Amino acid sequence: SQELEQSPQSLIVQEGKNLTINCTSSKTLYGLYWYKQKYGEGLIFLMMLQKGGEEKSHEKITAKLDEKKQQSSLHITASQPSHAGIYLCGADERGAQKLVFGQGTRLTINP
Amino acid sequence: GAVVSQHPSRVICKSGTSVKIECRSLDFQATTMFWYRQFPKQSLMLMATSNEGSKATYEQGVEKDKFLINHASLTLSTLTVTSAHPEDSSFYICSALRGLSYNEQFFGPGTRLTVL
Questions:
Q1: Residues of B in contact with A31 (CB under 8 A)
Q2: What is the pLDDT of residues A95-105, one digit of tens each?
Q3: E strands of A8-95, at which residues?
Q4: How far is CA A2 from the centre of its chain?
Q5: Is the pLDDT of residue A70 over 70?
Q6: Residue of B49, B55, B54 lying closest to B23 (CA atoms)
């Protein structure tokens, strides 16, 4: 089965700094999804990537999928307190009709 | 945007009792709903896939008789934790699929279950 490894597991950054979260898959990614979760709440969909080399941006968040489609990164520029939360990557597991998730990255933004 | 609600948001129960959690898609019909379990500082683990009008498909290792899932309508799925024990304490999240793609999957706010 497909496994996703996220790094780092936790991250503390100063407000205004840039940061990157990585998601590495044990198999080729056919659909990679990034979500944000606030503690004790549900997931909010951020972006979906499907094509090798694809890059998408929304406000100050940019997600990329590498050419080999086995690794994705989420980059936040000029971080703000509102960016704090848990970021999870999810992958569409082909043939199984379900999403598998990474273990999450807990992001803390210090003022 | 699409909204998925869960009720209750928190529940505390005694060991041995059963607890029902509801998941509703408020402004769309969902033929497929998913139930996840999340342990502290861990990822979401899919428990089962629920399709309207048919039996749920459980993931390996999830006890069907312990976690009863009913998807009675296109907007409602329920998860019943039967004879709950302290080890069942967890955060349960449901999601509903509005279309065919997972970017059309909308998550509920979760239910925190504590079994004493």
A1: 101-102
A2: 667 889 999 99
A3: 10-14, 19-25, 32-37, 43-49, 55-58, 61-65, 71-76, 85-93
A4: 16
A5: yes
A6: B49
Identify the pLDDT of residue A95.
67
For residue B22, pLDDT over 80 is answered with yes
Is B39:B90 a contact under the CB 8 Å cutoff? yes
- How many angstroms separate the CA atoms of B98 and B104, rounded? 5
- Please state the rounded mean pLDDT for residues A83-90: 95
* Residue A23 to chain B, least CA–CA distance (Å): 13
Cβ distance of A92 and B102 shorter than 8 Å: yes
The nearest CA of chain A is from the CA of B54 a distance in Å of 16
pLDDT tens digits along B41-93? 778 899 999 988 888 999 999 999 999 999 888 999 999 999 999 999 999 99
Residues B24-45 pLDDT 10s: 999 999 989 999 999 877 788 9
User: Hunting for tokens 């590498």 — which residue is that?
Assistant: A66
Six-digit token string for B115 = 């079994």
Whether cis (ω within 30° of 0) applies to the bond prior to B8 is: yes
As a 3-state breakdown, chain B gives helix, strand, coil percent values, each rounded to 5, of 5, 55, 40
Closest by Cα among B87, B98, B94, B95 to B111:
B94
Residue B7 has what pLDDT? 96
- Structure confidence at residue A85 as a pLDDT band (50, 70, 90): very high
The two structure tokens encoding residue A4: 């996703």
Of the candidates A90, A97, A103, the beta carbon closest to that of B42 is on A103
